[in-house]
Amino acid sequence: MEKQKHNFKNLKIWQSAMSLSKDIFTITKNFSKKEIFGLRSQINRCCVSIPSNIAEGSSRSSNKDFYRFLEISLGSLYELQTQIILSFYQNYINQENVKIVEEKIIDLQKMISGFQKSLLKT
Questions:
Q1: Please, which residues have CB within 8 angstroms of residue 28's CB and are 6 or more apart in sequence?
Q2: Average pLDDT over residues 45-49
Q3: pLDDT > 90? residue 47
Q4: Cα torsion 108, 112, 114, 118: sign
Q5: CA 93 from chain center: how many Å?
Q6: Beta carbons within 8 Å of 45's beta carbon, 6+ residues apart
Q7: What are phi and psi of 48, to 5 degrees?
Q8: 32 vs 29, 35, 37, 97, CA distance in Å?
Q9: How far is CA 28 from the centre of its chain?
Q10: In this predicted structure, what is the pLDDT of residue 77?
Q11: Does the pLDDT at position 4 exceed 70?
Q12: Percent of the chain predicted with pLDDT > 70
């Protein structure tokens, strides 16, 4: 497959991933100090990997390669969703924030999956 050029900053999936990351960083600021190097750190690293993999994948030489990086982003989204639920169980996050973040995660999962399908068509 020939490379389809994508400017990652113009991709709606990247913009949404960045917005989600911003929300996550705001939420995790309120975590217990003892979690700075634990769950908080893991969540922050996870949410950073989502737009980062979208950006990195957009630079690859084929749509197949880009697709693979989008798979990694999807995996990170599922990981993030799990960590957010775990944070709720530990009373680090309230139910309202969990609902808001999970809706954004699910929407982004759908967007990335749809974008992947479009890559396969070209």
A1: 40, 43, 44
A2: 97
A3: yes
A4: positive
A5: 18
A6: none
A7: -70, -35
A8: 8, 5, 10, 16
A9: 15
A10: 98
A11: no
A12: 95
CA-based end-to-end distance of the chain: 8
**Continuous segment of H or E residues that includes residue 27:** helix 12-28
Q: How far is CA 119 from the centre of its chain?
A: 19
pTM, entire model:
0.90
Q: What is the pLDDT of residues 71-120, one digit of tens each?
A: 999 999 999 999 999 999 999 999 999 999 999 999 999 999 999 999 88
- Tokens of residue 38, six digits: 């634990």
CA distance 114 to 97: 26
